[in-house]
Amino acid sequence: MNLRYILLIIFSYCALWGYSQRICKSLNDNWIFRFSHQVEKDAGIRVTIPHTWNAQDALSGKLDYKRGIGNYERTLYIDSRWKGKRLFLRFEGVNTIANVFVNGKYLGEHKGGYSAFVFEITDKVNYGKDNKLLVRVSNAERLDVMPLVGDFNMYGGIYRGVELIVTESVCISLQDYASPGVYLTQQKVTNDEAIILATILLSNRLKKCNVMVRFEVKDGLNITSQYERQINLEEGKEEKVVFPVKIGSPHLWNGKKDPFMYQTETTLWADGLLLDKVVQPLGIRYFGIDPNKGFFLNGEYLKLHGVCRHQDRPELGNALHSEHHEEDMHIMLEMGVNAVRLAHYQQSEDIYDLMDRSGIITWAEIPFVGPGGYEDKGFVNSLDFRENGKQQLRELIRQNYNHPSICFWGLFNELTEQGDNPVEYIRELNILAHSEDSSRPTTAASNQSGSLNFLTDCIAWNRYDGWYNSTPENLAEFLDETHSTYPDLCIGISEYGAGASIYHQQDSLCRPIPVSFWHPENWQTYYHMENWKIINERPFVWGSFVWNMFDFGAAHRHEGDRIGINDKGLVTFDRKIKKDAFYFYKANWNPEPMLYIAEKRCRNRTNLVQDITVFTNVGEVELLVNGMIIGKASPDQYATVKWKNVKLEMGENKIQVRTVSKQRSLQDECVVWADSIR
Q1: Which domains, ranges and CATH numbers included, belong to the chain?
Q2: Mind telling me the catalytic residues?
Q3: Which of 56, 58, 253, 503 has a CB 3.0–4.6 Å from the CB of 65, allowing a cystine?
């Protein structure tokens, strides 16, 4: 081995352990879990993070699923070469309360189950040895932590990733509410020029020093902008560095049409050596809402085809992995979704990244959830509760500040003004949201009249016309009357939906009782067809969001074909079956050619005369029954073709539909059994 090669190895080693950029080490494996009452030796079981202890009991419809304390323990070896560096534990999500200990010494508490948090452990560890981590987690009901109630499960556990982060004594801050420490504020954006304010937070633990901060904007491999500044950092202080960044003729982030993003790279240097690096996306865009014309992105009208999304699955609860978020995104994109309300809480970092890359307009919100139609409280006027809500709002905004997909900060869902009145507190939250981020509007989801509807920059309503009450026509009346009465109010629909079981089929249209065990799929289809027509015909509705994209867990739900599940999803809880309403929206929202026969799961028909409904976005299509051509027809403006009074034969019938055009060959078919009503 020659001398030059040896010197290269030595230099690389010194660079790695002397001055180096941060090290991120996953701590997701080798945890031992036990409940707090399991105090006997060796009572724990080995688990891997993400983990929840409610994956079975909550999803079985058990009303009193475990709401208590669980202990997570593991060892962590700290390399002796890390002496002089800084060590941080970062938790992406622990529901709901986390108390963290290192070697039996208390680090602190985090209250809130949906946001990330960080603890520095530099002075708490033994170097060159194994160290013991203990995280005591509680999902017990508390009056000082949001949410107090919700139509979803409060899964307990460390259900998102954990990592150890090692930095130099001087670093880009990790401790500003667990944010990346880099904030990209879009001060002014036009098609001709973008002015971005890059704010970098630096943290110095040890002696006074001089460092150089470099900020770069990259378009692929090309550096479009670069700024540098020398900074003198005082011992034990944090410093804010601000770069005004100008980008001429910016390539705009333009939703699904063109979700282009620049990449920013913030680096910290001392004596020519790299100390730290943080990479953040920069999607440059401008948007707004007109009370009469709706939502605009980069100066162009954009009809928001939105859905709501919860974050759980069978057998997993909320302990999801990256591939689950990716699958959800794939399904939403297949349907043609271009907007998502992430209800009712801050969700995984993975999903925000996916929203950015896919060009999805995003509504992100805190878990300030009201009782809705349930006997409970959503707001307690105590100092602890109020401060926790503000903390969770700061975390939501600072941790997700740079995501171009986020266009709305949501402040509450279905609160009431009875008892402790939340109006003044919401005003405080609204002021706080604007002080944290003046570039995005606030919104909320209301289900009633009153002052609550006039506190945020825009408002949306949860409406279930045709499910819990009234008829779809009442939605039209509500929207028109509200718009007429408050012409300057930006009006949206934050939820609309109906339950459906793929196992509940009927060939007549009969409205079910929502709290019953009979949720026929064809009523959900009818509901969405009628409600979407009403929404689509009113451009002043700035956005609408189907409740829900996927069935989700709610232990108190005893309805439909399975207890413990809210079945209003357009896709089943396991993501395996897309309901008929999914294909209605796909035909209307996704321009990719498609053809689908509705009600194909209704295998047993009680009448020999049937209406056949098809969803398609192609031209003329042809219907065949038992090989006989019934007729040709073209879809209406809502991508729907309906043949009325089609006569079936007694017994088995094969129904086929196909495109007429030879340039576009699509077909669908099903088999049904027909019998006359006796």
Answers
A1: 21-172 (2.60.120.260), 182-282 (2.60.40.10), 301-592 (3.20.20.80), 604-674 (2.60.40.10)
A2: 414
A3: 58
